[in-house]
Amino acid sequence: MKMMLISKKIAGLFLFVLFSGAGLMAQVQQQESVSDDELKQFISAIQQIQMIDQMAQQQMVGVIQEEDLEVQLFVEIMQAMQDPNQEVEATDEEMVKFQAAAEKIEKIQVEIQEEMEGRIEATGLTVQRYQEISMQIQGDPELQQRFQAMIEQG
Asked: Which residues have CB under 8 Å from 118's CB, separation 6+?
């Protein structure tokens, strides 16, 4: 269970990086209505992205473990690097292992981002439109209901 929580943290950081800026982009543009076809394409893209994300999580955890570093410590170091108010105790050797793992993970993330973007585009959506729909779903209760109904229908 602990590993799953840590993997979700890593994945959350990854997906945040992948789609950061989507909110600003969607807010600047006028909101275009989302057709049922686009919503179906969006759902297909999400399902594919989730599968890719699960594989990426396993790869990233594997890289961290290959460097003989605890996943929890990797996450703590990453968080401390992003938040100057947060401290973490790590030896010089652990920091070297962290750096090696982080470099490998960065390469994985680039590959995974390209794969995710390709899968989105294979559904017939552009990455930009995917991000716009994502933001609209978050801010539009009626669209959320349509989205949920389509997911439940399968």
From this structure: none
**pLDDT value at 12 more than 90:** no
Buried b (16+ CB within 10 A) or exposed e, 36-65: eebbebbbbbbebbeeebeebbebbbebbe
Side-chain-side CA neighbours of residue 108 (13 Å)? 23
Residue 124 has pLDDT above 60, yes or no: yes
Give CA separation, 44 vs 81, 116, 123, 127, 154, in Å: 35, 12, 7, 13, 10
* Closest by Cα among 29, 50, 42 to 121: 42
Whole-structure pTM value: 0.71
Angle between helices 71-82 and 36-66 (to 10 degrees): 110
Judged by phi (left if over 0) then psi (alpha if -120 to 50, else beta), residue 60 lies in: alpha
